[in-house]
Amino acid sequence: MNFSNTLIYWYLQNSRELPWRKTKNPYYIWLSEIMLQQTRVAQGLSYYLKFTSTFPTVFDLAKADESTVLKMWQGLGYYSRARNLHFTAKQIANEFNGEFPSTFKEIIKLKGIGDYTASAIASICFDEPTAVVDGNVYRVLSRYFGIDTPINSSAGIKEFKKLAQTLIDESQPGTFNQAIMDFGAIQCKPKKPLCMFCPFTDSCVALQKNLIETLPVKEKKIKVRNRYFNFLVIKTKDNKTILSERKGKGIWQGLYQFPLIESDKNINKNELISSDEFIALFPDETTISLFNKKEIVHKLSHQHLYTQFWIVETEYSSEAKINWSDIEKYPVPVLIANFLKEYQPKKY
Q1: What is the C-alpha to C-alpha distance for residues 146 and 141, in angstroms, rounded to an integer?
Q2: All domains of the chain in start order, with CATH
Q3: pTM
Q4: In 10 A of CB 166, how many CB atoms?
Q5: What is the secondary structure of 67-106 as a DSSP string?
Q6: Each residue of 39-74: pLDDT tens digit?
Q7: What confidence tier does 281 reach under pLDDT thresholds 50, 70, 90?
Q8: Which single residue of 14, 260, 268, 321 has CA 20 to 30 Å from 142?
């Protein structure tokens, strides 16, 4: 049996029951693939069901406000995925009359869709033999063939894509692609892979040469940047607060946050209230207290946010226009969402 036949045979016996496996509708396949980037299936499944229930067609997603889409995406992270999803839904609805492009070359032109997602949609929905390469595929191929080229290098990306393309079963490319992804997720796992029950036991180079723990190889990660956030949770006498939308191209674009003072280190109360930003925001008397006694560390891919939430009570603020009772309507970063779950504002 060759590689693809063995893999597909394994898949037919071990595939996961997932809702997007029951359709070839490119809208649903697209949704699932975008959601599962950087996200485990167990976490992404509930979001997929929520999205397909609220937005059953691409027209429904296109008509939604971006704020609504971001609110539904809250907790999945990497919010540029949601913004791109919404942008592309509007393009497909308005420019293509709801019809998804049917070839890899056309699909990859859509915003937010890269080689992997375009390959998945083209193969699963339109039977185009173009191979997917994601983290699971890198792991399976690097171990099986004993390849130590770094998977996050330009050379590695090209090498693994070319190899995957030579292996794909052209008669059933969608099944092959789903098989190799499932194999990496279930069988050839990052840690403690099920080598004892693997159909490739006799031919896997990593197993024969004891390289399971060292493959795949990744180049050294980018240096992580530390940032220090001080959120000012305002509460006025008439039970209002301040939330503002984050602009620009940085983290959390389009999400809402409390006024933020960023410092170059962890600061105490006296340092906070003597800062120019605090004085400009609160010229009048306030009562301030630290909500979290221990600094919260929120880890993103290339930065760690050391965060403090300061409760600021003041009689009046011209900027405070949002009722506390309405605060849950706004899309916020998971860092702030977690704070809101714990904080119960008392009446002034």
Answers
A1: 8
A2: 3-208 (1.10.340.30), 225-342 (3.90.79.10)
A3: 0.85
A4: 9
A5: HHHHHHHTTS--THHHHHHHHHHHHHHHHSTTPPP-SHHH
A6: 889 899 999 999 999 999 999 999 999 999 999 999
A7: confident
A8: 14
User: Residue 230 phi/psi, 5° resolution?
Assistant: -125, 105
Cα dihedral 122, 125, 131, 132 sign: positive
Q: Within 10 Å of residue 56's Cβ, how many Cβ atoms?
A: 12
The three-state secondary structure class of 288 is strand
Q: How far apart are the first and last CA of the chain?
A: 73
State the Cα–Cα distance between residues 201 and 328, nearest whole angstrom: 52
CB atoms closer than 10 angstroms to residue 315 = 12
Whose CA is closest to 337, among 322, 327, 326, 323? 327
Task: Decide if 231 contacts 295 (C-beta within 8 A).
Answer: no
Longest Cα–Cα distance of the chain, Å, equals 78
Residue 5 vs residues 9, 169, 185, 252: alpha-carbon distances, Å: 6, 8, 18, 44
State the angle between helix axes of 154-167 and 135-145 in degrees (0 to 180), rounded to the nearest 10: 80
Q: What distance in Å separates the CA atoms of residue 243 and residue 347, rounded to the nearest whole number?
A: 19
Query: Is the Cα torsion angle 213, 216, 222, 226 positive or negative in sign?
Result: negative
**Catalytic residues, which ones?**
33
User: Which residue blocks in the chain are alpha helix, DSSP H?
Assistant: 3-14, 26-35, 41-54, 58-63, 66-73, 80-95, 104-107, 115-126, 135-145, 154-167, 173-182, 205-208, 269-273, 276-281, 334-342
Q: How far apart are CA 300 and CA 252, in angstroms?
A: 11
Q: Which two tokens stand for residue 136?
A: 């699971």
Q: How far apart are CA 324 and CA 321, in angstroms?
A: 10
**pLDDT of 347 strictly over 80:** no
Q: Which amino acid is present at 54? A: T
